[in-house]
Amino acid sequence: MAKHLVQTRLNGEPVEFLCDPHATLLDALRNTLQRTGAKEGCASGDCGACSVLLDGRLVCACLVLAAEVEGCEVTSVEGVAQAAQLHPIQQKLLEHAALQCGVCTPGIVVAAKALLDRNPDPSEREVRYWLAGNLCRCTGYDKIIRAILDAAAELRG
Amino acid sequence: MRRVGRLLTGLMDSPARGYEAPDSVEQAVALLSAHGPAARPLAGGSDLLVQLRAGLQKPAVIVDLKRIPELSAVVLDDEVLRIGAARSSAALREEPSYRALFPGLLEACELIGSEQIQGRASIGGNLCNASPAADTVPALLVNEARCEIAGPEGRRFVPATEFCTGPGSTVLGLGELLVALHISRPAARSADAFLRFTPRSEMDIAVVSAAARVQLGEDGRCLDARLALGAVGPTAFIAEQAGDALRGVSPDDAALERVAALAREAAAPIDDKRGSIAYRRQVAGVLAKRALRVALARAAERTRG
Fold first, then answer.
1. Tell me, what's the pLDDT at B243?
2. What average pLDDT does the segment B130-148 reach?
3. Do residues A74 and A98 share a domain?
4. DSSP codes joined into one string, A13-72
5. Per-residue model confidence (pLDDT) at position B11
6. Average per-residue pLDDT for chain B
7. Domain of A138, in residue numbers
8. Do residues A99 and A120 make contact, with C-beta atoms less than 8 angstroms apart?
9. Of A79, A105, A128, which one is at a domain's C-terminal end?
10. Quick one: CA torsion of B75, B85, B140, B97, rounded to 10 degrees?
11. Which of B111, B114, B120, B129 is the mutation pick for testing A, counting most A CBs within 10 A?
């Protein structure tokens, strides 16, 4: 099977990889590039565990072909923390104990960052609607929402 | 086990798979024509990738349309809003002037899936997927959208009302693709609205949906009314008689009750897990009335403004 060559930027670094023409971005991230932060939950765009930013826009990596990201900028959860310094969203999720099994957490971090980058002062309702596509089956939503609102407050200073 | 099974299937029955990202409509048409039904056009992918994963589609070649500038562009001139067929819902929402012109259409866009889905999903793809429950289709119908289609014979226009021919099927022929949707600016004192009924407020598929567009006369009577219903037939459709019943009359409660009755009559739903026939008929009447009320209020506001 002919492989497809993709050149792109991942978390600010240029990367190139070979992929099956119909492989998803999630496959490429996890299995080729060894960035296993994005998780495969449903593989149909319902759960948000594979949320990444594609040219700054929040998307499910399971619904993007790897070949489509040629020349794009991909941001995965691995690009959120600055070296050993957690992003305030990550820190607040820890402080609020807003995760149990952790499978949804990378997607929630990326989705919440996309929201706060656009809207630094969202209402609780706005956070809940924005995260409608991120399922947490440990049902920790309240803590997650509180952690994100707290992170937003800290980021505003 | 599941993964191994899929890998083996992949090796056995789809030896040659390709991905093409043409940068012009002409190249896309050439690719779609050359490969015929073995090629699938890709816009946002929120339907196609799910179908690939489920094994419902096994295209030899995927033709990604997002590198074609015309398909991602939105242009508003003095007469028409032209929405490139592959423009993502999220990108469309960002321009406030479109919402000011077509609040109902933008409301329908916002109801498609999650933020993640809207980051990819396009109105053009929503129409081409031809689901009876597609959120944006009723709003396209009441706004008299025209579909610009490119194919081996050149370009042609088809009214949105004729584009979907059944669940999952459209008028697109071999080698053809949807390039853009053209919607005329709303007439004076007119406005649209869209409502959808779902058990959950987000991430759900319409049990019934309704779009309305009305134009008020200077005397407050209804000059024109169009009502479209979704998820209550094989395709979304215009409920002609329901709209006609408002034309030339004062849109009071009694008139809206008559429209609701005609909407219930026009609905031809099926029984499925999302709702029974009787329930969907009832909800079609309720949503018809409510969507018209929202559109009437907006048109009245535009009259004052």
1. 97
2. 97
3. no
4. EEEEEEE-TT-BHHHIIIIIS----S--SSSSSSS-TTEEEETTEEEEGGGSBGGGGTT-
5. 44
6. 93
7. 88-156
8. no
9. A79
10. -30
11. B114
Number of domains into which chain A is organized: 2
Q: What is the pLDDT of residues B162-214, one digit of tens each?
A: 999 999 999 999 999 999 999 999 999 999 999 999 988 878 889 999 999 99
CA–CA gap between residue A154 and residue B12 (Å, rounded): 54
Packing angle between helix A88-95 and helix A105-118, nearest 10 degrees? 130
Using a 10 angstrom Cβ sphere, with 0-12 exposed, 13-18 middle and 19 or more buried, the burial of residue A42 is middle
Q: Which candidate from A20, A21, A133 shows the least CB-CB separation from B113? A: A133
CATH of the domain at A17: 3.10.20.30
Closest CB from B46, B49, B91 relative to A24: B49
Residue B48 distance to chain A (closest CA, Å): 9
Q: Residue A91's CB: how many other CB atoms inside 10 A?
A: 16
pLDDT, residue B203, reads 80
Q: What is the pLDDT of residues B49-88, one digit of tens each?
A: 999 999 998 999 999 999 999 999 999 999 999 999 999 9
pLDDT single digits (tens) B209-250: 999 999 999 999 999 999 999 999 999 999 999 999 999 999
B95 confidence band (pLDDT: 50, 70, 90):
confident
Q: Cβ–Cβ of A65/B90 closer than 8 Å?
A: no
> Residue B72: which of B142, B22, B140, B134 has the closest Cα?
B22
**What is the token pair recorded at A89?**
């969203």
Provide φ and ψ at B158, rounded to 5°.
-130, 135
What are the distances in angstroms from CA B137 to CA B54, B76, B134, B142, B244? 25, 20, 6, 9, 20
Query: CB B187: neighbour CB atoms within 10 A?
Result: 12
Residue of A nearest to B59 (CA): A22
For a pLDDT cut of 70, what percent of chain A falls above it? 99
Cβ contacts (< 8 Å) between A48 and chain B: which residues? 114, 116
Identity of the residue numbered A17: F
Q: Do both A74 and A47 map to the same domain?
A: yes
Q: Give the total residue count for chain B.
A: 305
Contact B46 A62 (CB under 8 A): no
Token pair of A33 as six digits: 């590039």
Q: Is the pLDDT of residue B1 over 50?
A: no
ipTM given for this complex: 0.96
Per CB-CB distance under 8 Å, the chain B contacts of A54 are: 119
Where among A27, A45, A79 does a domain terminate? A79
CATH number at residue A101: 1.10.150.120
User: What per-residue confidence (pLDDT) applies to B202?
Assistant: 79
